[in-house]
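TEACHING EXERCISE
Course module: macromolecular assemblies
Task: Read the component lines below, then compare them to the predicted structure of the full complex.
Student: A.B.
Group: 4
Components provided:
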Amino acid sequence: MEEIPAQASKGESGDSRVASLFDFHVSAASSKTAEIPTVAELIDTQAKSACALGGLASCSEGEGSSTDGGGRLRHPGFVLFMQGAEARLYRGTFLGRPVVMKERFSKKYRHPRLDEKLTTKRTQGEARTAARARKAGIPTPCIYFVNYQNNCIYMEDMQLATTSRDYIMAVQSAGGGDSFQALQPIMDKIGQILATLHDADIIHGDLTTSNIMLKQDKTMSEPEVVLIDFGLSSVSQLNEDKGVDLYVLEKAFLSTHPNTETLFRVILKSYSKQSRKAKDVIKKLDEVRLRGRKRTMVG
Amino acid sequence: MSTGTMEINTTLDLYPDTTVTMALFSQVTNGAEIRRKITDGTIAAAVINAQMICDPFQVLVAVNKAVHLDKLDRKKTKTVFGEILFNLSPGNNILAAYQKFGVQDAKSQDLLVVLLNDPKGQQLEQVYSIIQGTRIPLESLRDIVDEQKIIKLFKIPDAERKVGRLVDVVVCRMATKDAG
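Instructor-supplied answer key:
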């Protein structure tokens, strides 16, 4: 299993999904006609590729990461599918439902007691903030169980979903000139969700297009924006922190998806429309941009 | 002949040597007696107020956490069954949990019984002989549940209600209760 490529995920939490499967269907999408896929269509294509890869995934152990020293599977019934800087992601079944299990592993270079405290704190924080986000109406995977012994979070596996990263790439490679029109409504929705998030004083901390997912099943006429990976999130009323949150997204956005300045502007416009405190946040965003790096300049 | 699932028998994925059995009883009239028998240990089961359960999954999540804490000897309550009731509740007050989610003071009530490690059904037989009520299929939970009561107890705002099904909202609350 490999690290997530640098431009896709700036934070150390590394929880992007399905990113590595993307390569299989860029060619599929663009080789036929210049037809722009809908979110539902992309999800379908990815699901079919995932089935094909399914056999491979269960064979590869990957650097002995999913077994303990004795070679026994640490998590029987769970299949490792992603490894980030801070956590491993597994897929499996839990009480009859498909789940994703996020296991934060210990960092051996840290002092053991500090490591234990830090890892548990991060796990706890992620669960707490995800619950807080849900209370505010932000769609995010439902958490089913948190094991504080081994820092594993068992959560809903959104099977009919794709990352906005994958979708933007698929649309751009297929659509050429029409891609702006196809992506605009999605950007609009993303802006709204971020506004709702910040109005609830939640800072995501790792906004990238891999952490903003799009969900669409047969009952939905439009895709839904779902946020994932609250591992680096915090609570803050400061416009500065919200501005930095948006700045992180802007940087990740523009580096992953070239020539998308106009698309990102749609997000900001929609954000401003939805949020009551947007004006001050955007002002801070402008200030942060001028500074060049994310610094809080407080105290 | 009744249609529907009269009983759920499943194992916990994370604790495969633990089997869980669930059965639903309607119009139970001897609540007080059942409560006595739970206290004195005759009945070793979680007897739950079915009005507060919107889906068996909700109960399974509570059972999973209870068994998990029991294995670590980190329960907040005395028994794994008490822990199941405690996990179902949004708060940290054990007595309140028992009052809201346990056997009620009512002449007639619907109760969901949860047993552990009863693959041959012996414990269920015993419970069946004590409870004065009618066994009904678990699908009937749909008709028994009082969603407004749940929403009120968990203080679920409209915004959160729209994020997913009620069972998911409740389960997420249960799972993140001790995260702070």
